[in-house]
Amino acid sequence: MSIFTCPLPLPARDRILLGHGSGGKLSAELMRDIFLPALSNPMLDRLDDQAVFAAGGVRLAMTTDSFVVKPLFFRGGDIGSLAVHGTVNDLAMGGATPLYLSAAFILEEGLAMDTLRRVTESLAQAAREAGVRVITGDTKVVEKGSGDGLFINTTGIGLVPERVELSADRAKPGDAVILSGSIGEHGIAILAEREGLEFETPVGSDSAALHTLVAEMLAAARGIRCLRDPTRGGVSSTLNEIARQSKVSIRIEERAITVRPEVQGACELLGLDPLYVANEGKLIAIVDPAQAEAVVSAMRRHPLGEGAGIIGSVGDGPPGLVTIRTALGTVRIVDMLSGDQLPRIC
Amino acid sequence: MSIFTCPLPLPARDRILLGHGSGGKLSAELMRDIFLPALSNPMLDRLDDQAVFAAGGVRLAMTTDSFVVKPLFFRGGDIGSLAVHGTVNDLAMGGATPLYLSAAFILEEGLAMDTLRRVTESLAQAAREAGVRVITGDTKVVEKGSGDGLFINTTGIGLVPERVELSADRAKPGDAVILSGSIGEHGIAILAEREGLEFETPVGSDSAALHTLVAEMLAAARGIRCLRDPTRGGVSSTLNEIARQSKVSIRIEERAITVRPEVQGACELLGLDPLYVANEGKLIAIVDPAQAEAVVSAMRRHPLGEGAGIIGSVGDGPPGLVTIRTALGTVRIVDMLSGDQLPRIC
Q1: Which of A69, A74, A148 is nearest to A106 (CA)?
Q2: What is the ipTM score, two decimals?
Q3: How much is the pTM?
Q4: Options 3.40.50.300, 2.40.50.140, 3.40.50.800, 3.90.650.10; which CATH number does B176-333 get?
Q5: Distance (Å, rounded) from C-alpha A220 to C-alpha A296?
Q6: Does A50 touch chain B if contact means CB atoms closer than 8 Å?
């Protein structure tokens, strides 16, 4: 049995496992068993990457993420820039224009001051480039051995235009599935750094702020139902979430998905499936089929969407079922990530 | 020389110390040397406990706090309820009506699932009682030894009424300094739990959501200049921040400050000054002297303000200087907390 189809191990887990932070099955289980029973409300229950609410007649989006990536610095970014990109992207996936961030640091006693300075400067630069301001913050320090260098939480606030209604429960049979570019680069960049792997062509993280790409897409077509950035758990987990929340099936085509040769090579070496590897500068869009080409064209005009293409479609098969037609023409199930393939990837 | 007047140790620190998370001098230094140079903007530079911004014509407040309190459960609360009260209070100190929270958990591998469940249920109950909803969240897991059970970040959003303008830079000579009740209970409750101390009369944390008290105060008088909750670093650090930001002096009267006998006893035993011990359910108000009695009366009608009283006044002495007239009639300087008197108190 592959990891993709094996049932969750029994008996019931009574301890937190690394896999509970993977963005896959165990994360979903934690949500279902612990968080939702206690905290349930209509906004949280949507399980989107951001909550949209009205305050004083204005529609706003709010999203939060803690960053525990290891190592702190990697090819193509660091925990500071990632903490901006990740939260800006979660706002963008709700169609929101990112406005403000909070930044809260948990530092481990003994952290080099210079490391904190470099991370803070990188965070500040990423925020400037994304056009958002860090307006409030917090710092806590824990004893040596009670943390790991530094963790950052960023929470973001954005403005949601009146007509925009994006959610993972809006996919309909017939919709096109669009992916903005090649996959797996962030996860492989982190793993390479962590394991000291060297590739002929080095792999850098794709970490980037996607809100200007999203703005172009929303300007090009009104038929966008849902946007998601396939981070932890990769493309597979994101598609599973959408299929489950929209109660639809999704079929994707392996041929349509770009995996750069160096990423493919690293995945083969490490025994990873690129569909499960994290991205930090890519998005998946579920779009009215009549407008899919217009959306792809708009995306390709943007530097972060040059590799955009339609990778599959939404169907009326078993709700929650995601399948892929391989390059060989066979069809297999694409399940959510199970276990802890890549802990601390973001 | 007492810890209250000794200069910062030299040479320049190149590593993070526990004291950098104390809310005292080292925290201020980190802000001045690392965070502000990189992130400076008019909203952050105010150094209030919350940022107030306008979005689409609506005034909102945003605040963030990470909670790393140790132990997770203590008399009078736990990390879950504290994570709600702390953030609700930071919104309330800006005069905002708290609306929504995000909650982001960093879990250590091996944490008992039951601990997470209890904390989450407590957080949910505190949110219900405070009338706020948790609308978005995040969970990360770090390896055993890279965290310490669980850390929680909560970020809050509130609505700021049009006429409300509260900030630590608005204190004026002549203003009254009001304190809402007895001090030091949260810090002593945590220390007692941590050190296994037993007192004849047990000390419980004062952890509570103060926004309804603030609403009564704002309804009673328009002359409130500034509200602050004296958490990390205690009353002394809060008064120093206000004096510094408003470029005024502040004089308080020891006789006017209530310290419960069991807290006083514990402080003497532990060599602590109650003025430096954290509170989680108290506030300090700087108020137009003509309206101070009205504010105190309004506070005393609220269960969380029963012990309210005027404890001092703002003066035109050296900017940033805080002094106390002791019970014996002598006057001494009340400096910011220096060092790491009580790490991980919230």
Answers
A1: A148
A2: 0.94
A3: 0.94
A4: 3.90.650.10
A5: 9
A6: yes
